[in-house]
Design a protein that fits this description.
Layout lengths: L1 E4 L6 E4 L5 E5 L2 E6 L6 E6 L3 E6 L7 E7 L5 E7 L3 E6 L4 E8 L2 E8 L4 E6 L7 E6 L4 E6 L2 E6 L5 E6 L4 E5 L4 E6 L2 E6 L4 E6 L7
Antiparallel strand pairs: 1-2, 2-3, 3-4, 5-6, 6-7, 7-8, 9-10, 10-11, 11-12, 13-14, 14-15, 15-16, 17-18, 18-19, 19-20
C-alpha cells in the first residue's frame, strides 16, 4: 500500500495493490478511483490533480494517471517503458518522474497539458534509485543504492547526505528533522540527511 497526505487540505489518499485508491477526509473513508488490477506504486498530490503511478513491481512498464482532485475522474493517461519508482509534484503542470535507466538513476518531466515525458538528464545519480519522498513544496529526497540525496525543486541544489541503505523516511516539519529507517535501525538526521543520532537499533521496515 502507498499513501500520501495533501499538505494543504489534510486529505489522505491511499492506493492498494489491487489498483483501487481511497481517500480519507474528515474521518470518512470513501473509494476515490477504481480501475484495473494494476498495483498503485506511488501517489503525488498537485493543486487541482492527483498523479498516480501504477505498475507491477517486477515489470518494466509503468502507467501514470492524472485524476481530477475533486472527483477522482481520469483526465490524462501516460505510459512509460522504463521502471519508474516514484513521482514528485512540482506544480500542476509538471511532475518529476524518477526511476532507473540501465540501473542508474534517471529523471524526466511529465508535462501535464500534453501528457508527455521529457528527459531532464540522462542520469542524475551514480547508482540505482530505491525510493523517493516528497516532504514539502521546496525539496524532496531520493534514496539510491548507496545513500540518501536531498534535492531542491530546481534540481540544481543537491546535497549528498547519509550513506548506506535507506528503507523509509519520515519528515518532522517543526524541527525540520528526518527520521530514517535503515537496516541498522532508526536514525535521526537533519533536513539534508546528515546523521545526528541513533534512536533505535531495531531493524526498521520499509513503507
Amino acid at each position: 500500500m502507498c499513501d500520501v497526505m495533501d499538505l494543504n487540505t489534510g486529505v489522505h489518499y491511499w492506493g492498494l495493490r489491487n489498483g483501487d485508491i481511497y481517500v480519507t477526509e474528515n474521518g470518512d473513508i470513501r473509494l476515490y478511483y477504481a480501475a484495473d488490477s494494476e498495483p498503485v506504486l506511488d501517489i503525488a498530490v498537485g493543486t487541482d490533480y492527483i498523479f498516480v503511478l501504477k505498475g507491477y513491481p517486477n515489470a518494466i512498464n509503468r502507467s501514470i494517471l492524472s485524476l481530477h482532485k475533486s472527483t477522482g475522474y481520469l483526465y490524462h493517461f501516460t505510459s512509460a517503458n522504463w521502471p519508474i519508482v516514484g513521482l514528485i509534484p512540482r506544480n500542476d503542470e509538471e511532475v518529476y518522474v524518477i526511476g532507473n535507466m540501465n540501473n542508474v538513476g534517471h529523471i524526466e518531466r511529465l508535462i501535464h497539458s500534453t501528457s508527455s515525458l521529457v528527459p531532464v538528464w540522462q542520469s542524475f545519480q551514480t547508482s540505482a534509485v530505491r525510493h523517493v519522498w516528497t516532504v514539502d513544496q521546496d525539496h524532496f529526497y531520493v534514496a539510491q543504492a548507496d545513500g540518501l540525496i536531498w534535492y531542491a525543486m530546481d534540481l540544481m541544489n543537491n546535497h549528498v547526505g547519509m550513506s548506506g541503505e535507506v528503507l523509509s523516511l519520515d519528515w518532522e516539519d517543526i524541527e525540520r528533522k528526518l527520521y530514517i529507517r535503515t537496516p541498522a535501525g532508526l536514525l535521526l538526521a537533519d533536513e539534508y540527511g546528515n546523521y545526528l543520532s541513533t534512536l533505535s537499533t531495531e531493524i526498521g521496515r520499509a513503507h
